[in-house]
Amino acid sequence: MRIAVFTDTFCPCLDGVVMSILNSTKLLAERGHKILIFAPSYGRRNDTVQLHENITVERQFSIALPSYKEFRFVTPDFGSITHKVKHFKPDIIHIHSFSTLGWLGTTIAKKYKKPYK
Asked: Would you say the pTM of this structure is higher than 0.70?
């Protein structure tokens, strides 16, 4: 199965959402599933990181909120992310938050008629 994951918090932040994503994607990847995670960057640039042979993280430009430094406000590039999702061809899209990346993941799932949760 191919799974696209959208989250507005990710490593190096280690809250419950991040731990849940890390644990579940690791178990799925070990069973052969391919996972593409869209997450905030914790710097000022986009980059792609390979966490496992079956887990890729696409970091998106983000800025820290003044009152909560661990949470990042992502300014997603709709065109680029849509292209990457289309190329990845996920079977399902999993949303872990409903901030900017979560909203975008839901929008893309509806556009491509993919199940999302």
From this structure: yes
